[in-house]
Design a protein that fits this description.
This protein is about 50% helix and about 10% strand. By secondary structure, it is an alpha/beta fold. The protein has an 8-stranded parallel beta sheet with strand order 2-1-8-7-6-5-4-3. It comes from Streptomyces incanus. This is Dihydrodipicolinate synthase family protein. Keywords: Lyase.
Length: about 300
């Protein structure tokens, strides 16, 4: 029987939350804290989660910690169809992570961009094909940050791997996204704006139907306001939300996104929801910069 992935496709056309990974005082992953943050998201109405995403400090976690994060997420949600587990690194590691997620009940994986200084377009296809073919019963979502990649390459991948059902597109160029999506097949894939709320209005106008979010950890209602406005085509309201989150996202994006995760964790710490610590190469905010983040977080309805 052919898998249609209808439930998984619907889950991608939404706020795709990227949970932070909280650390305990000794620097280890804090399971209780992580569960509490997940429960807060779920209780607020967020249903689609990406454990082991970049906001979850994927590249700073050990293989065992990544497995733990996956396990905790699937236990807490109880519904693997809306969990998009981040996998990556070398092909055997990514395949093992995808199979682990599948065995726990996950129905989708997001494949992080290949970590290699030299990525050819055909090699990109080969990398993703090897992972997708290893888990044909899972929906597979490539995370695209490579501006050189063409839509034709995604079509090539999906022609051999029909379980490639969506794309997290994170090239900061709305015109390039519009062209890429149409070259690959606008209706063939679920297009997720992979640069979160700041890019969501422009990417939705070009065909995206979901967006990722790290901000959602802090203020789920704000992200839900954004997706609600975009779904109804109310771009005026969506841009009012955009104005509300603009400074927070500017702080995250500054200096080549050096503080992308740091700002989110600082906001959560200011609300008493988790510790502020991040792992190198990220670093906590200096004391004199924390007040602005706390003020923004306090001003939202959380």
């Amino acid at each position: 029987m052919t898998t249609t992935f209808e439930t998984q496709r619907a889950a991608l056309a939404d706020v795709v939350a990227i949970p932070v990974t909280p650390f305990a005082e000794d620097g280890s992953v804090d399971p209780a804290g992580y569960r509490a943050l997940l429960r807060r998201l779920l209780d607020a109405g967020i249903t689609t989660l990406t454990p082991n995403g970049n906001t979850g400090e994927f590249y700073a976690l050990t293989p065992e910690e990544r497995r733990t994060v996956t396990e905790l997420t699937l236990e807490e949600t109880g519904d693997g169809s809306s969990v998009l587990v981040g996998v990556g690194h070398d092909v055997p590691t990514a395949v093992a992570s995808a199979r682990h997620a599948r065995d726990l009940g996950a129905r989708m994986v997001m494949v992080h961009q290949p970590v290699h200084p030299y990525v050819s377009q055909s090699g990109w296809v080969d990398y993703h094909r090897a992972i997708a073919e290893a888990v044909p019963d899972l929906g597979v979502v490539p995370y695209i940050r490579n501006a050189q990649l063409t839509g034709a390459r995604l079509t090539e991948l999906a022609d051999s791997c029909p379980n490639v059902i969506g794309v997290k597109y994170a090239v900061p160029d709305a015109a390039k996204f519009a062209a890429f999506a149409r070259d690959a097949g606008l209706e063939r894939f679920v297009w997720v704006a992979g640069l979160a709320e700041p890019y969501a209005p422009s990417y939705f106008s070009a065909g995206a139907t979901g967006f990722t979010s790290g901000l959602v950890n802090v203020a789920p209602s704000v992200s839900l306001d954004m997706i609600g406005a975009l779904r109804s085509g109310d771009y005026a309201t969506a841009m009012k939300v955009w104005e509300q989150i603009r400074r927070f996202e500017e702080l995250r994006a500054a200096n080549g996104s050096a503080n992308n995760v740091t700002v989110v964790k600082e906001a959560l710490a200011s609300l008493g929801l988790c510790r502020r610590e991040v792992r190198p190469p990220s670093r906590p905010l200096p004391e004199d910069e924390r007040a602005e983040v706390a003020a923004i977080a306090a001003g939202w309805s959380v």
